[in-house]
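Quick sanity check, Tetratricopeptide-like helical:
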Amino acid sequence: MVDPANTPLGKMLLEEITPVVMVLCTPLVEESCLKNGLSFIQMLSPFSNFTNIDVPVRTASDQPYRLQKFKLRLFYASDIRQPNLEAAKKRLKEVITQAGEKDFSEMSSDPAQVSDLLSRPESEIIPTWFQFFNKELVRTLSFSDHEAFDHPVACLLVVSSKDEEPINRFVDLFNTNKLPSLLNDGAMDPKILKHYLLVHDNQDSDSEKATKLLTEMKNTFGPNDCQLLCINSSQDGQIHHEENPWAPFKSDALPSDNIGCFLNIDDLNEIKDLMQELSSKHIIPYMEQKIRVLNQQVSATRKGFKNQIKNLWWRKGKEDALDSPDGPVYTFSSVESQIRILGDFAFMLRDYELALSNYRLISTDYKLDKAWKRYAGVQEMMGLTYFLLDQSRKEAEYCMENAFNTYIKLGPAGQQNAIRCGLWWVEMLKTRDQVKEAATVYFRICSEDPLHSAVMLEQASFCYLLSKPPMLHKYGFHLVLSGDHYKKCDQIKHAIRTYRNAVSVYKGTTWSLIKDHVYFHIGQWYGFLGMYDIAVSHMLEVLASSHQSKKTQELFLRDFLQTVQKSGKTFEVLKLQLPVISSSSIKVIFEDHRTYASAAAASVRERIWRSLEEDMIPSLSTARTNWLELQSKLIPKKYKESNICVAGEAIKVGIEFKNPLHIPISISSVSLICELSPNPEERNSDENSSNLELPNDENETSTSSRDINSSFILSEVDISLEGGETTLVQPTVTPTAEGILKIVGVKWKLSSSVVGFYNFESSSVNKKVAKGRRKARHPPGDNLKFIVIKSLPKLEGRIHSLPGKTYTGDLRHLVLELSNQSKVPVKNLKMKISNPRFLYAGNQRELNVEFPACLEKKTNAEQGGGHTNNNEMLQNVFVFPEDISVKEETSLSWPLWFHAAIPGNISLYITIYYEMEDVSNIMKYRTLRMHYNLQVLPSLDVSFELSPCPSRLQDFLLRMDVVNKTSSECFQVHQLSSVGRQWEISLLQPVNSILPSQSLFAGQALSCFFMLKDRRKSSTSEDSIPSPSLIQSDVTLGPQGNNEALFDVSCSPLADFHSCERMQQGMSDQGVENKTDFIFISQLVKGNTDSGGPSTPLLFSHHACRCSLSSMSPVSWLVDGPQTIEHDFTASLCEVKLRMTISNSSDSVASVRVNTFDSPSNGIQSSDVAGTQTQTGVSSENQSGWFDIPVVNDMKVITSDALATRLAKSLSMESVSQFIWSGSSSTRVELQPRSTAEIPLQICVFAPGIYNLSNYTLNWNLISTKDEENQGEADKSCGVCQGYPYYLTVLQST
């Protein structure tokens, strides 16, 4: 266990609770001392502290011990008074201010990390001025009337040998008018030890006169109490003391040069002897004697059982006295004061047992007397005595707690005493390693004075740091509290120091709010001091605080910009956090042999372009190999992995700027940082390396800046970011000379005040234009290095009037415009479009046509060619005519046809290949890539249903359903066309009877019915086939008598887009004769489509392919004969002759066998035979299809359902058939391709009635040729068909 006297608290007590010597001296004494830059007390003070005085002392009970450490405190009589509180606070403020100036000069470096602090000893962690401040704080309570350890023990009267009548001067010095008020008021005993000192200045004369005066003094005041001190023995005053003993005691008001310059070693020895003799031979014996006398008096009056009972009885009447802060007044002669003096004298002479017994004795008296301040003072001393005795820690802490609480209860009168008690209590706890508890006491002694509280909170923070384990959060939090209090008292430097220490706690943690608070205020306070560089560096830490409120973010940004403005200069900050740059979002877009018409085209993945260009670029794989081989020959090894760009063409870097704040920010002058150096292979060329300089401020949104001596042009972009907004910024650099270009980074200006830099070397950069072959991984900087080659021709292209939003079926005429700004022409142009269903290249003659008039049907004399020239298309690649080239400052326009085939978000990719003259050995060709995004909305839903006509062999019934799927548009129906010239379409009823307005409004549906005739089946010879001009393949859907022209679906572009639709569905033109396609055309007068559209009505075409003719049987037939006859059954049976016409619509020979049945079960309602029927008459249960209603007579129409019902009833009533087939029961016939044949039939009827003659079947079989078998004919080759219902009405003749 460490000796309590050697602990910080023990050392403090040995310095502060020691005997006081009152000094009375004449002005001439001070004058002699001031020659050395010291007052008299300052001259003696270094020699009044003894570390080994070795004086024997006896206790009151005659127990001997030796006193080793001893100290005298010297005060002028004028200073022995209670300090003025305001003056004490001013003194403390000066101490703090001086400490702040000293500490602030040592804060140029970064604050130490917490881990480094914990590795240091405590003496290096805690500021040294804390101890000095605490001592000054304790001294503000000096010379209290209720404590005796500040009462003078002795009086030192000092007279100069130069004074007139020195003996009288000694007598005059102790005049009561000059003594402290505490002595005159009775609080202190005026009968104290007096010691007389004569000071002789050897600079004035020799010591003979002084010796005579000393003899006279001894005769007057006694031989033991008088002494002579000779000083200033040095004649030249050049003595320099290497170890200055007066430094801790020197006042700033005195000159600091040549301190002690007239005091030689003899003078110092004489001063030491004086203080040694005064302490050991006068003061200590006097105190020892005083203790003995007081102890005897106390023992006689207060000790013992009888005296204690007497004291309690005497004090019993005081219990009803009112409480007062000071309690009753005690003079120095009262028993209570004598006991207190006894305890304090014993404490100062290290007799702690005696001191403790007297403190205990007087504590009860003060408590009974309700003298709470004196009671708290005694409790305080008891706690200190327990500590020094190293006894009962609980008792010591209880006494300190009791004293502290009692002082606090006294209010302002006991506040300062509570602070002193708390400081001693803290040191007691720290000595016992109760550091966390000590921090709590520091917090409790914080007063209303913010400056005092700031120091206490800072000391508490270090207690938390030194606790086991360290309580870092509380350490940082109390530092912040301390800094706030320092700032309130204008101690900005101390506030900065505490906040800087707090940074080490919160840096790198998730405590973002308090971290932002610390950084911001450090920056703000540095700005108050005019240290703008450091202020800006700290404020930068909180600029991107996205977690803060909008109001706080506005405060941070406003103060930051004001600080920058006050500095009067532009700050350049690497990795400025406002705005935030995402390293993964950085993309480099440049052009080599691949060029782009728009930013949208540059953002498309390379593999899409490569797949589109495979059929366009000749020998792509070989060219790739040759490219790399050529590259390795032309490019030095050091730059093999660099990219290639062309002089005069911009390189674009896409960078995402994100505003992390909730408030808008202004970003200006966004530009790239680049370096251009000569190509290593061109050492003989002129030096053209240049670095980027800061560009001038521009007011435009996007500008370019170029240095006269620079070899590249930089663009500048100005943006404004709303709260939380992310914007893609694409600054460009355009090299103007050949060489090696390197993009280093990007810079920008925040609010036109701070320049931010971002270095690309430390981030990963995505290179948008990637080479075709996967390369090995290289450093990120390689993606930003380019080899600049000389200027090459470059095509620029755009498509005029291409809509961004339209409806399904939209058909338009567009124009592709290509321009070349180079003097070198380009040739051998080719074009490929990713989706020909939407976009198709037309003929050059279609460039200036009027749309849609150009699509109208022409007369025979006007009809020319049909589709676009097929010789221009090779593997979906459109080849421009060889004589076409694009020259300087000229443009090439080419017609395009657009058709919105299907709804959805459609991407169109267009690549144009072109070749150049021999202007470069590296690039022989280039490609122009174009990309457009379309939004196609649903418009009309068109569906078709085709059914055979049972009454005519060459006719089909067609039903068309149209539904308007738009929400607001109105379409006008125009025409329906069949693809091919073998079909003839006619309306069964006028459209205006169904749709009077000819307009189909939003959500409305339309159903139309048509008759479709196949003219190929109408004759058995080619000579009888009508000419194409006579076939009606289109039908207008407008009102009758409307003269609007029909559109020609057999010519471009309708025929071309229809072919694309067939190809999209995997169909070919082979076997098209067995299938039918339709094109439905409508118009939209006014719509919401995107633009570019003309003011004329928009044209819409909807294409339907293979409308299920191929699913029908190739064999069809028709039974013809009478429907109503009259016969006299009384005379004979009725014979009826019929004929069946059978047609073969296939390209193969058909073998057909007709089987008839007499049984009713086989003839009436059989609907399916062996599951192989492919085309039948519709049974009575089936309500689908179309039927002619047989006419029974001129006045009556009987439906097929009614006939079937009546016939079924008649048959059920009879057990035998009422008719029989009287001809052959089985007839076989062979039909040639596309031919017909007739078979005679006959029945015999036995009774009148209505008969269904459907009890027969047709078995057919196609006889395929060998060539057809090799082609893999997919159609069905055989089948069985049930007979059609044919109703015969037989009447009895009259």
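Posting the structure with no commentary besides this: Residues 942-1104 form a domain with the Immunoglobulin-like fold (CATH 2.60.40).
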